[in-house]
């Protein structure tokens, strides 16, 4: 299920003194099964873009084709877009409202008009993916859980719709390190085991470096960089000019290189740094 975004422009409050061009002629293609990170400073247009991909917003001009279907056309129903594209908003746990976890996760699949046994199967699968035991948690109130667990329930609610494309807006924001790692691990599994196309909006270069095959950088409503992490993280000046940065460990590797260590410049994760440093010290010993 490929996504083709063609010359997308979105202007908020057009024709008023508050007019704002949030997307400016954006063209991007995303292939089935890709894991794409969308990064950019606040106000760069990331949320506006992802809300077009799940049909919440319509463009002023341009279009989006998902597997050849023009989802920006008025004839396409929102419900058919929702079947293909799941969107996990920022702080999705604020949208939990049912008295039990099972009922909350069932909400989306029920709206798809599925039979009860199919809904239960989907709830079980979704809870397994996010690491919550069905029997232990299904009858609990979502409000009894920790922040990280609540968020996993909210993500399970979207995952249970079994979309081919999953968009997550800052899914680790505000979580402690353990909560962050759990969520990142769940997302990596979703991508690997279900071959979902994932679009991850993130401020954390560390998260992006760990997971993404490809990075899109937004600035002032335009996509200014598009490439593999190794290519994007080499663009330190451009990233810093638009208020972004490379992972902290990449800065460390560059400093070590400047100091004369024979270290690769393509260090973007702690694990890569660990391997590289161990091999350097082994050769020195
Ligand atoms: P990001 O997600 O990267 O922070 P947004 O897509 O939210 O960026 O915003 C892009 C631009 O559009 C910003 O200048 C923002 O102020 C403006 N904007 C976003 N939503 C609205 C809205 N509902 N009404 C008017 N302007 C908006």
Structure description:
- By secondary structure, the chain is of the alpha/beta class.
- It folds into two domains: 3-244, P-loop containing nucleotide triphosphate hydrolases (Rossmann fold, 3-Layer(aba) Sandwich); 247-285, no CATH class.
- 41% of the residues lie in helices and 21% in strands.
- The strands form two sheets. Strands 6-7-8-3-9-10 form a six-stranded mixed beta sheet, sandwiched between helices. Strands 2-1-4-5 form a four-stranded antiparallel beta sheet, covered by helices on one side.
- Helix 3 packs parallel to helix 6.
- The model has no long low-confidence stretch (mean pLDDT 93).
- Bound molecules: adenosine-5'-diphosphate.
What's this model, at a glance?
The protein has twelve helices and ten strands. Helix content is 41%, strand content 21%.
Label this structure with key terms.
12 helices; alpha/beta; membrane; about 20% strand; single chain; about 280 residues; four-stranded antiparallel beta sheet; Rossmann fold; cell membrane
């Amino acid at each position: 299920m490929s996504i083709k975004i063609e010359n997308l422009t979105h202007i908020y409050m057009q024709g008023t003194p508050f007019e704002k061009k949030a997307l400016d002629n954006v063209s991007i293609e995303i292939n089935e099964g890709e894991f794409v990170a969308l990064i950019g400073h606040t106000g760069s247009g990331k949320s506006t873009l992802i809300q077009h991909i799940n049909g919440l917003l319509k463009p002023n001009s341009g279009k989006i084709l998902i597997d050849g279907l023009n989802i920006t056309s008025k004839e396409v129903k929102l419900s058919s877009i929702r079947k293909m594209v799941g969107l996990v908003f920022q702080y999705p746990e604020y949208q939990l409202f049912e008295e039990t976890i099972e009922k909350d996760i069932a909400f989306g699949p029920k709206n798809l008009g599925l039979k009860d046994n199919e809904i239960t199967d989907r709830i079980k699968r979704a809870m397994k993916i996010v690491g919550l035991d069905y029997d232990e948690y299904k009858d609990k109130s979502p409000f009894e859980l920790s922040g990280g667990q609540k968020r996993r329930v909210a993500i399970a609610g979207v995952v249970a719709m079994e979309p081919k494309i999953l968009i997550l807006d800052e899914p680790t924001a505000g979580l402690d390190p353990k909560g962050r790692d759990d969520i990142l691990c769940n997302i990596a599994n979703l991508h690997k085991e279900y071959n979902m196309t994932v679009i991850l909006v993130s401020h954390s270069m560390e998260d992006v470096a760990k997971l993404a095959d490809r990075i899109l950088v937004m600035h002032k409503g335009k996509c200014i960089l598009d490439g593999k992490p190794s290519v994007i993280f080499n663009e330190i000046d451009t990233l810093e000019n638009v208020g972004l940065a490379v992972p902290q460990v990449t800065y460390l590797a560059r400093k070590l290189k400047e100091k004369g260590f024979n270290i690769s410049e393509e260090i973007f994760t702690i694990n890569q740094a660990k391997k590289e440093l161990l091999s350097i010290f082994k050769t020195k010993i």
